[in-house]
Amino acid sequence: MTRLLGAAGILLALGLPAPPGPRADDASSCNPGRVSGADGPALRQVAEAWKDAYNAGDAGRVAALYAEDGQYLSAHVAARGREAIRAYFQRGIDAGGHIDAIRVAEARSDGTLAYGTGVYEANNAGQRVDGRIVLVLERCGGRWLIVAHEVVVRDQPEAPPAARQP
Questions:
Q1: Contact by Cβ (8 Å): 98, 123
Q2: What predicted TM-score, i.e. pTM, was given to this entire model?
Q3: For the domain with range 36-154, which CATH number is right: 3.10.450.50, 3.30.413.10, 1.10.1060.10, 3.30.590.10?
Q4: By the number of CB atoms within 10 A of the CB, which of 47, 53, 82, 123 ranks highest?
Q5: What is the pLDDT of residues 42-83, one digit of tens each?
Q6: CA-to-CA distance for 99 and 120, rounded, in angstroms?
């Protein structure tokens, strides 16, 4: 043992580097935590519940899917907190918004935090739009709540001249 400690002391005295350990940028040390078991369907159910509540015209039920200090971010708004989120979605509902589909493409979880990425299709006041979504969720009191939700509307193709209003 003393010999081993003595050798380590010599290496340190010579300024030689310690044996390599896992590097922060080493992808093999990353634990992807792919969703399995009950988390996958549960995360997809949050997206489905969100769509159902919005299409039912119930902005309060949409907001209840978010953590108390949750965030919704888009090019149009940065809403923080359930009341701000509820008010924003109420305006969309009142304007005739409708969510046609939300498809979660990938979801990962460590059992406490999770994220999902996907796409959505919607009708906003007669204009069909689609885009990308990122959801970050936290398990709180046995249920998944949205802590951050970002939406990016894809550039929509321009309407043909006959479809444009003068």
A1: yes
A2: 0.73
A3: 3.10.450.50
A4: 47
A5: 888 999 999 999 999 999 999 999 999 999 999 989 999 999
A6: 8
